[in-house]
Design goal:
Blueprint (H helix, E strand, L loop, with lengths): L9 H11 L4 E5 L2 E8 L8 E8 L5 E6 L14 E2 L3 E2 L19 H18 L20 H5 L5
Length: 154
């Protein structure tokens, strides 16, 4: 017997966001969900204003609005980011996140963890969050499946 899962619609995703993250301002306009709020990875960590957005059927995106994420002097970029704009929270080709999963219990908590790893990396130079990054020295790396599944919003 094959088990099927239901894709959550944007309004259902928004309802889960309002339930689990009531301090976020969540809105759905046509095919776009946007949610704005603040995350603090630890009691002594910075407070980050973030924007979570999702187009129907696409993978969600998380952007840090402020404070600006800073690079280290020994590395010209922040690791585990798409185009230095969006947090890399999962690997789409492994289906670590699917549209049947509420973003409120997956993507947002993963963003909190990512911000914690960012703060540790910024202090120590070592990324402890696991995962992998594309080889940006190769031309194809900017056109890999991750980027195709995370299109830039219009």
């Amino acid at each position: 017997m094959k088990m099927t899962t239901c894709r959550l619609g944007l309004r259902e995703q928004a309802a889960f966001m309002r339930l689990h993250w009531p301090q976020f301002r969540t809105e759905v306009h046509g095919p776009l969900l946007r949610s704005f709020g603040q995350l603090q990875p630890t009691a002594i960590g910075d407070v980050y204003s973030v924007k979570v957005s999702m187009r129907g059927g696409m993978s969600p995106e998380v952007r840090v609005i402020e404070p600006k994420l800073l690079t280290r002097t020994d590395l010209g970029r922040v690791p585990h980011m798409y185009d230095q704009e969006r947090l890399c929270l999962h690997t789409p080709m492994y289906d670590e996140w699917t549209p049947s999963m509420p973003i409120s219990v997956t993507i947002v908590p993963w963003a909190v963890l990512w911000l914690h790893y960012y703060e540790v990396w910024h202090a120590t130079g070592e990324w402890l969050g696991g995962g992998h990054e594309p080889d940006e020295s190769k031309e194809y790396s900017t056109k890999n499946e991750c980027h195709e599944r995370f299109p830039k919003p219009r």
